[in-house]
């Protein structure tokens, strides 16, 4: 299949109109696709859905969220249908790439545990460590250990679910795993976010993640570029969807 023929579904968990558009375009940019090749299923707009939403798509992407929590399914009724859809993708071996909220959603969907940090949490650009298993993974096999990535999250998983292989981590949490039986990858960090978008997002959601202007500026001043992290989505397209 040619790159221009690919059609992907983005499961989006965003309410803010600006962030909705930015996330969609960022995924397209780093996948090396045109935005029109990625269709959006926004869970705030469509909280009830079934496997039919995947019809005609070559893969699914799952984005992040600053407005929802996988630990509150009673507040966000789309959590259970979203987890069911991830399990369906695994069953039919539809390629999936989950980022941040998507990583946490996959952990819960596959029987793992997600916890909430009430105090300090990862925020900014961080060095990400690779496991030995990453050297055999098509997305990570030629990535440098300690590559920089954008990571902003108040919830985390300290272990991967059963039937999955840990690929990347920091001391506090898991950062990437692959489902052993399917072309299904996750990242707690944001491969669809680069330094300029991080600055934009943290400034926009400063009250949610930072303790005032001084804290915000300290995080932004320490941010670095993240080219290796941002390359992962294109690797997913090139090495899995086009040559898998």
Automatic annotation (TrEMBL):
Signal among keywords: no
UniProt keyword annotations, A-Z: Glutamine amidotransferase
Signal peptide coordinates: none
Residues of the Glutamine amidotransferase domain: 79-194
A Pfam family annotated for this UniProt entry: GATase
CDD domains: GATase1_1
Protein name: Type 1 glutamine amidotransferase
Provenance organism: Ferrimonas pelagia
